[in-house]
Amino acid sequence: MAKAFDDQQAPAQAMKFQRRDLGKWLGAQAVLFSALPLAGCFGGGGGGDEPNVYPTATPIADTAAQPATIGSYQRKNGYFTWSVAAGGADREIEVYIPPGARQREFWIGITLPNGVQSNQFLGDAGWFDIADENSACLLVMKPGSSGSWGEVTAELAYVTAAMGTLVSSGTHYSALTYHYVVGYGAGAAALQLYAAKTPLSMISQVYVDAAADAAYNALLAAAGNTQVGATAQPNHMDFAGYLDINGNPVTQRRTFAAQSYRDVPIPTWFVGNTAPSLLSYWAGVNDAGILPVADKDYGQIYWQDKEVSNAIATASSAVRSQVAVKSGSVKLDDASLTNKIYRFLSQYSGYDNNSVYGHFITKRLDYKAAIASGNMIVKNHVWSGSTTQQTYIVYVPEIVKKNYSAAKPAPVLFCTHGAGQTAFVFMEATDIKEAAEKYGFIAVTYDTTTTAYLTDLVGMVKQDCLALGVAADDTRLYVYGQSAGGGAVTNFARDATLVNTFAAFGHTSGTFSNPAAAASTALLPLYVIYGEYDYWPMKLGPVGAGDWRGSTNNQSDRTAAMQDYWLNRLIGRTLAAELASPTYSLMDGLAGSEVPQNTPISLIVKPTATANRYKTYTWNRSGIPVFVFGQSYGRGHNQIPGDINKMWEEWFSKWQKGDQPNTFRYWKDGVGTGQPALLTQA
Questions:
Q1: CA–CA separation, 674 vs 664, rounded Å?
Q2: pTM of the complete model
Q3: Residue 609 pLDDT > 90, yes or no?
């Protein structure tokens, strides 16, 4: 949804412009946006009887990037042309990147209808205004030189190439590789087929006046029935063709039953005249119920029936997918329709995850409303030791305001992102927002992962929490990280100040490096989870003959080194000693003898305490759990909402700082329930 910022929170306000206001605006913003083409600085619409004036696209290669010190903001802003190679020829695309747009944000891919002038259509339809108001970026795909879309498989190549520019480190712009798409008229066919073939990169979609014939229906069915296949990580495979650390074939088998593209839901809205076959296909994909619910904006909504659905993407979350249908004639460039399209799309969020067993969609947070209602603070600042603008977000859900106050402090979870991510991406990617609402804690995400930054950030966040009406509980501050952020958590746990700041530590899929000579060796509680198809092996112990060594291959010893370090530090035993004579307890739903090939997907979608995707090893010290190593079967490198839920329920909710430095209270039934055990240096 929309993001709102005050003057200190973004390099420029996202806004609408009238032509007569352009000079005044440029006077105030000339320094920051000196690199912007004038055509890219305003959306549509003059006032009164003045004709509408819309931006004209200019070549993106001709525009200089803004300095890297602006932090996580897009380094080019404006309305641009570019080209992609498709079918042996170059085809033009357009991009619109408004001021205030962030790197690795969600983009909206749009295929225009036949016979329109792109800037006129986008302006009349209100897409420039939508982009400006919501800091949303647009990728615009157009018919060829004839002005009409051609044969669908040829056009699919163009759409695929265009959408392929939306990568995290693109030539000219940065995007989260997980998208919203909108297809108009004849432009809907290729885009819809693209979505059916790449559902793991989709969030939600809208098609206006979408037609189909028997040949197209066959293409759609073939796409849906295709098994989700190999990726750089063997996330959906039987490990066939993969080699172990010695170059021999991997002997592991696929844990869960294979999935097809039509098993991956994509919330969908059809507007106007729609072929019935398309409704049937997407209703099946989204496990839609048979009884619709009337909606004044979206027509008839067929909500996902989660009781019967086996969709992994909506497991571990309260979100429901849907297929909505609003029939009748529509004006394609009606701005009120565009507003409804955006509202439909932005109900949903999620994170790109090329493992079908770890893919998820969630409910998107309305940042603008959260800021306005006093539930969120978003700040940019240049912290000590850096010249780059960094952003952090403090989110206080209503349940926290209900249960806590300035006089009754609340727990806070600091979330540390992976390489190339940002505060905004990580707020969505972890779905930490839903966990915060579910369990009642304050969630903090931020742009950088250094120890010095986090040390400063804790104090700033405490003040921001008070500004939002709730104090932060000094005894219940926690830190969690993913991937490179997990490596950062390890560094935090080696810093004496931060060891004494946080009540518990946790990470998913964390990288590992050897400690510096002066690193802290104090006791602390740590919980980690790795995925079956992770970058680094999730095996307990070093990889051996026939073991998959992780998708990074040359770093296959990372998790074993991590295990050995923490076992030594926390319980005084080596990994080799533990493997020879185990002292851990093993729990959760998967033991080695209980994992047949092609285990039913229901184990992921409808888990129980004794049948679920996790295998969890726990080591105690004086009867208190101090180190937990979790394995998440089927998951790739990216964490999933189930990991966050598990970590909060089993770990963070049970820990509190003690009265003395480097001491911790463990409440086995949750902080405040029963009597705590004290973890001390001994």
A1: 16
A2: 0.90
A3: no
